[in-house]
Amino acid sequence: MDNEKYLKEVLKSQTLSFDGPELAALQQHRADVENLLRDHFSESSPTIRYGGSKAKGTMIRDAYDLDIISYFPNDDTAAGVTLEDIYNNVRTALSKEYMVEQKPSALRIKGNSKENLGVDFHIDVVPGRYTDASKSDVFLYRSSGEKKRLKTNLDVHLNHIKNSGVTEAIRLMKLWRTRNGLSITHFALELLVIKLLKKRQSSSLTEQLEYVWKEMRDNIDNLSIEDPANPTGNDLSDLLSATIRSTLSYVAGTTLKGIEDSGWEAIFGEVEENEDNKTARLKVAASSVVKPTKPWLDYEKGMV
Amino acid sequence: MRKVWYKENPALLVEMKEEIKDDFPNLHFYESNGVIVVEGSFPIRHDKKSLDRYSIKITFLKDYPKSIPIVEEVGGRIPRTLDRHMNEKGEACLFLPEQRSEIWPIGSTFLEFLNCPVHNFFLGQSLVERGEAWPFGVWDHGVRGIRDYYVQLFGTEDMDIVIKFMLFIIAPKIKGHWPCPCGNGKRLRGCHFPFLLELRDKIPRNVAQRSLQFLLEAKSGKRKLKDNLI
Ligand SMILES: [Zn+2]
What we know:
Chain A is α+β, with helices and mostly antiparallel strands. Chain A is about 45% helix and about 15% strand. The relative contact order of chain A is 0.11. Chain B folds into two domains: about 5-130, Ubiquitin Conjugating Enzyme (Roll); about 140-220, no CATH class. Chain B is about 40% helix and about 15% strand. In chain B, a hairpin with a 2-residue loop joins strand 2 and strand 3. The longest helix of chain B is centred in the middle third of the chain and has 20 residues, at about 110-130. Chains A and B meet through helix 9 and helix 11 of A and strand 1, strand 2, strand 3 and helix 4 of B. Zinc ion (ZN) binds next to loops of chain B.
């Protein structure tokens, strides 16, 4: 298969169908979270909107997410006096129903019941406060980095990515990130890809990706990203820390070498088939196992 | 103080990277706080095709290869529940430590670790997720699994005899003229001597010791065999 066609096939296999189980579950959780927030913060009447890869058109099956944005009016203090208070109060509210993992500005929600303990719901809740009554820009709390607050704008972010002209390259780079267990955030990766491909929007996907990886491999220390909603005000340098840079550079290098040695399929694998017959094929795989093993559970290690 | 394994034996780390790079190009080695971790996506392969993938993290503790690497699912796909054999930290329990020498004896390669217990575990997860049974069965959780293993091994449900056998695995040495723990009145020499000598090679003393401790606690009622979980 021709490389360009192969990458398109990979993208197709990574597209979630609108009536599939993943998006249905996402929708159910979205409704639950929204109800919880509206109920808990009824006095503050937050503005609730959706962002994340679904809204940006960069969703992939292997790593999809939904941002639930909960912005409070600029003159409201019922949800919290400081930005940090708001963040903590939203976290406390969510903790009643979910296992909450703290991210620098967002709260990732996971299952907390006996059946789904720790299961990722692919949802980040992002609390913030509008900067003024026009309800456009917002301040977000930030638990890491130098500044404890970020000024940002959801629509500017969404448009920056939706209209970048390189959403296919972004989706493939997100898949590459997930497949290799890289810790760079989706946001930072999106900004980086858009910046690097600014003058290469009409190049082929193979050229675009190879260019991005070459820059990562050869020029990582000179790469930087700016927040499109606040280019000079928000310091995003901790999103590209020294560890993240060296890892990106190293994996980009092995990726380029992989293409050279074995072609593009070495990077994204064979195009995965749909779910048909998956169970039967898994059973065949099981029946060909030479040395079967039975799992156990050592409840002394964190279970009681 | 003893050096960590990859500083003492850097060649082993190089070898591990080399041996997995063709089959698992998406798994990468990192050094983090003095331990080696491997992160990336792990494919369930059959006939050179991947049927499924899991985001995993494998941690090699300071005393690797003596210790078994810790395998975690980091994608948040598998619930941290007893039925899925994941503890609440998201760590997989691949096999009973007693069975290590059958499954992945000391001296086996990291590639063999990935291709056998890790592959089997995640293949099982994919089937269970689809409502199927565990393909190779499972051990019951905690002390119950330990009991079942030794009951099978010694061919008796009599816990007093099981415990006697275990003491003979743990003992610093055993002698042929001692009475056999099976209770048939013979001496070890004419009875279970070769069997026990083999087990003493197979099951590390500290592993048997820990299991015996659990069984004794269960027997005395300090540890309940049932309903003691969650
Ligand atoms: Zn005997």
